[in-house]
Amino acid sequence: MGPRAGIALYERITCGTPAAADQDHLSVILMAFPKKIVDRTLFLEGIVPVNPAYEIARVIDRLAASGAEVIGMACNTSHSPRIFDVILSEIDRFPRKLNLLHMPREVGNYFNDEYPGIRRIGVMATNGTYRSGLYNDILEERGYEVVIPDRDFQNDVIHRMIYDPHIGIKANANCITEEASILFNEALTYFKRRKAEAIVLGCTELSLVGEKMEGMLLVDSTACLARALIREGAGKDKVLQPLTHHRSNI
To answer: Which of the two residues, 213 and 172, has the higher pLDDT score?
Structure first.
């Protein structure tokens, strides 16, 4: 739901679809209404009173009216129960049944399927996702040890990297600032020192900076959602392209 996050998701769907010609690709509808959907983290922190779920459901209704059957949301924080459960309740009233995918659960499924030997996973996310415990619950119920930062590090490094009005990823749509890249590397070092075997990029904005890193396994939630959308849109028997993950050299 950050504008660049939607573009990144569309790109991963296109690049991940097995295709030899234009006609082999999936039909994709991308809708972005950033002015209508309030910030998800600000809602979860109680700073804004309006639940973004209702406006998100209206966008999903527009997608359905345009012919969409499988829906993905390019925002991890919107999957926090206080938002996602309301979205489900709203779309349950629609005359047409839709397949609304759950990005963080797809990340958990991906670890189960592709990396069964990994046991200890770090999570980088917004304050809203962090405080909701969204990834903790999903990964722990699958038997993983979850490494999360203390509150000060979360707020001063990870959340700042995403939201800072001057150097943050959201504030610099045309490029990743040097300061944000420094904070990203600081976060990677934090998780490595705490013996994380992999890190979930649990905010779609982090996909944009994560591409620069090589060495530690970084699992991109946007790429996992794209893979799930291809699977559901093209058919479960379709041979999917492998996800490209990034490894940091820290």
So the answer is: 172
